[in-house]
């Protein structure tokens, strides 16, 4: 197994972060083998649901809200379009996390109904979905909810929960806090 991991490390530099976390995931995995990996954060904004929706579903904005991340995405993406987020420090090389996604759903909010965007994570390291919901509260306020349901490729979702859940929970909370600060200035 060690030789196989070394081969993958050398052959797939974009998967190194997942491979580095593998031993910790295997060690902690027995604690929650049946638990799903899910992180959720919500924030209320004093702005229309339409304005919040336009900001949060333009994935290029996520680079300002998620630390050490840049987005490779076109403007005005639609259902079926793909984009890539790359996260991690610039050094050491190879420890950056490439997160390829496809938009599966883009249903904007109405005056009475919640909007929902669903992004399918395609790998190479992370699989699962990210979801953004925008629920109107009258004409001048809304609640934005960010849900990450993610696991590492090649491992059962419950096995990676001890590692990913706390990290994703903090990431979603920070991203929403930064989004609120930026949009309500």
Describe the structure.
With 185 residues, this protein is an alpha+beta fold. 34% of the residues lie in helices and 32% in strands. Strand 5 and strand 6 form a beta hairpin. 28% of the residues are buried. Helix 2 packs across helix 5. The chain has a single domain, classed as Alpha-D-Glucose-1,6-Bisphosphate, Chain A, domain 4 (2-Layer Sandwich), CATH 3.30.530. The chain is built from five helices and seven strands; from the N terminus they run ααβααββββββα. The protein has a seven-stranded antiparallel β-sheet with strand order 1-7-6-5-4-3-2.
The CATH class name reads Alpha Beta
CATH level 4 superfamily: START domain
Give a quick account of the main beta sheet: strands, pairing sense, barrel closure: 7 strands, antiparallel
Unreliable parts: 28-34
CATH architecture: 2-Layer Sandwich
* Coarse structural class: alpha+beta
> How many separate helices?
5
At the fold tier of CATH, the topology name is Alpha-D-Glucose-1,6-Bisphosphate, Chain A, domain 4
Gap between N and C termini: 52 Å
Based on CA atoms alone, the radius of gyration comes out at 17 Å
**Roughly what is the average pLDDT, rounded to an integer?**
85
Strands, count: 7
Number of domains: 1
| Percent of residues in helices | 25-40%
**Would you list the SSEs in sequence order as H and E?**
HHEHHEEEEEEH
Strand content: 25-35%
What's the overall geometry?
elongated
What topology, given as strand order, has the largest sheet?
1-7-6-5-4-3-2
Task: Report the oligomer.
Answer: single chain
List the helices and strands and how they pair.
Blueprint: H1 2-11, H2 16-28, E1 39-45, H3 49-56, H4 62-65, E2 69-72, E3 82-87, E4 97-107, E5 115-124, E6 126-136, E7 142-152, H5 157-183
Helix pairs in contact: 2-5
